[in-house]
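ok so for the tutorial part 2 we go from a plain amino acid sequence to predicted structure tokens. step 1 is just haveing the sequence, like this:
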Amino acid sequence: MRDPRVALLFLIPGSGNTLRVNGRAQVSVDPNLLASFGVDGKAPRTVIIITADEIYFQCARAIVRSDLWNPDKRVDPKTLPTPGQILAGMSDNRVGGEDYDRAWPERARQSGNGPFWGNDSNCIPCRGRVTRRLSSALRIARL
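step 2 — the prediction. this is what the tokens look like for a chain of 143 residues:
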């Protein structure tokens, strides 16, 4: 990794609060750590470890002014471009397109990733592990 600096911004639906975490990231292939993130008996190939240097609440004025959580302002997901359309547009149709979108569900099934759009039943493959680990990290950071 050339530059390990990372910044995360956590948004809480319905809240104007945002939590900012600045720190450094590293990729790990430690077998014990990988096993701790396993889902349905399958461990990831890598995990990202983030060491927090700063944790603070960020000004929420932009979130509040944007009316982000107002259901009347939400965009119908069917009006958004698909991942295949985005890739095709970025690559002058060399990558992506309808074939990419059509093949995605099978690719996701084989890789264990699952579709992350349009099917809420597959949106949280970590089953809360990330949230628990972040909560633990934030508790540690406060000490």
